[in-house]
Amino acid sequence: MDKELYASTISNVVEYFEGYATLAVILNVNVEDLRQWAEGKSRPPIDVFLRIADFNRATGQEAKSSLN
Question: Where are the domains of the chain?
Answer without folding.
Answer: 3-67
